[in-house]
Specification:
It comes from Sulfurimonas denitrificans (strain ATCC 33889 / DSM 1251) (Thiomicrospira denitrificans (strain ATCC 33889 / DSM 1251)). This protein is an alpha+beta fold. It is built from three helices and eight strands. The chain is globular, with a radius of gyration of 14 Å.
Length: about 130
């Protein structure tokens, strides 16, 4: 049994990128699905779709690579962990890596990237950073 589905999803995407795989499969949860949709929106992965196999759901993620075959994702890092939750206010999540990276935040408005959370004026739990 997996305790932290977000960490598992980040690790699976990171490992698939290092192996230069086209597609990887993630365990489904609402937060992982929201995370994958943000990664698609920000251009870090090509696409994601939810696959239902009876009762069990999974998410198929198609990875994105640059022209020279290198993964578009340089680093994915889990910030808030089950043993140590990290919360930031709206002013602390304004920019990451001078705008080249994204902070993914779980807010009262749902899971949002840092630019949308800042525009809405909400802070929350920092799930991960991607650049």
């Amino acid at each position: 049994m997996i305790n932290d589905l977000v960490s598992d999803a980040l690790t699976r995407i990171r490992n698939a990128g290092m192996r230069r795989l086209d597609v990887t499969t993630l365990v489904h949860s609402k937060s992982v699905e929201a995370l994958a949709n943000i990664l698609v929106e920000k251009g870090y992965i090509e696409s994601c779709n939810v696959v239902e196999d009876g009762v069990k759901k999974t998410i198929n993620v198609v990875l994105k690579y640059s022209d020279n075959g290198k993964s578009v994702i340089n680093e994915m890092k889990r910030i808030s962990k089950p043993g140590r939750r990290v919360y930031k206010g709206k002013d602390e999540i304004k920019r990451f890596k001078n705008g080249y990276g994204t902070i993914i935040v779980s807010t009262s408005h749902g899971v949002l990237p840092n630019d949308k959370a800042y525009a809405l004026g909400v802070g929350g739990e920092v799930m991960c950073t991607v650049w």
